[in-house]
Specification:
Blueprint: E1 2-3, E2 8-9, H1 13-18, H2 23-40, E3 44-47, E4 51-54, E5 57-60, E6 64-68, E7 71-75, E8 80-84, H3 92-98, E9 102-103, E10 107-110, H4 118-129, H5 132-136
Parallel strand pairs: 1-6
Antiparallel strand pairs: 2-3, 3-4, 4-7, 5-6, 7-8, 8-10, 9-10
Helix pairs in contact: 2-4, 3-4
Amino acid sequence: MSKRKTQENDAEVDQFLADIQDDQQRTDCQAVLTLMKELTGEPAAMWGKAKVGFGSFHYRGKTSEGTWFHVGFSPRKQDLVLYLHCELEKQADLLEKLGKYKIGKSCLYIKKFEDVHVPTLKKLINKAYKSPAIAGATID
């Protein structure tokens, strides 16, 4: 069984965010950082070189096993990616109210923080943080 390459590390989240060149993206990341800290009550931690995560859980899948964060984000060239493990495709009622976004399996992609409805985003982050899949810790 393979293990995840991306691991929690001791890099400084504040330094990582301060090094973001694009002003809008840096501001958006700071806003998401503040939201996730407030909603989870967890400290932010770096995972790999470019992901900021909150909390952690152990999982075991069919082909891999490891530790991962409950919720997190990563600034990417095209979008700000939010990692929300709440089966986003099943959150149609909330996604209708969210604003401009794209989704992947557990990822929410937004261009600008100002394009999303913050109260709805808070609900999605809370759902992901309290996800039964994470609470059970075994994902098959």
